Amino acid sequence: GKVLRLPFLIIPDNTVVLILTGILKGKKWIRGSHNKSVWLGNYERKQTKTFAEKCRGKNVLWDLGAHSGYYTLLFKTVNEESTVYSFEPVESNSWYFQKHMDLNNLVKINHFKNAVSDKEGVLKFAKGNSVGGKLCEEGDMEVSVVKLSALLEDGEIEVPDIIKMDIEGAEFEVLKDLKSLLSSNQKPLIFLSTHSRKDHDSCIDLIKLLEYNII
Hints:
There is one protein chain. The protein has helices at residues 2-9, 37-40, 45-55, 70-78, 91-103, 148-153, 171-177, 179-182, 197-209, and strands spanning 16-18, 28-30, 60-64, 83-87, 109-112, 115-116, 121-126, 134-135, 141-146, 162-165, 189-192. It is built from nine helices and eleven strands. Helices cover 35% and strands 20% of the residues. It is α/β, with parallel strands linked by helices. The protein starts with a helix and ends in a 6-residue tail after the last helix. The strands form three sheets. It has a five-stranded parallel sheet with strand order 5-4-3-10-11, with helices on one face. Strands 6-9-7-8 form a four-stranded mixed sheet. It is globular and about 50 Å long.
């Protein structure tokens, strides 16, 4: 296996490649923008399959913690006419995100270079590696932070059918901010990633109170 993968591993970073297998086969991707398994076609295989199946036929995605655009690209692949509102505060990730959208000629993408939380303003952010950045009082940079409930009230974003949330510890705060939406009859489907047992338990308790089914 290592020998067969060797030609792919020596391709320089920032080379535009075609994703080799899977749902995104043939889509354009920039090597080095994310885990190499993305363009090899086996990134988060189980999650990818479930996401694609559950999202098929949906119209609006909120991609919270969009990174370089993998899940936005996946959503647009199964729903070509859909609309996406993506949020990613790290400049390098946002650059890759926009390049991936442009390379694949995708439209109806509304990209916000912001973090999301239950407050607004400029907050400290610990960048870490490209996939592990988070709001943190000891952060080494500052980012603009928005409240999704305020953007929704102001008409800057639409009510989502799908919320994909991978925001490194701010999930509970965002879920609290969205309680009005999540307790309504328009309940969006939520794909939630948590990053500690405490955060996981807090999020699950809140989601249960909002009468969600957890699968």
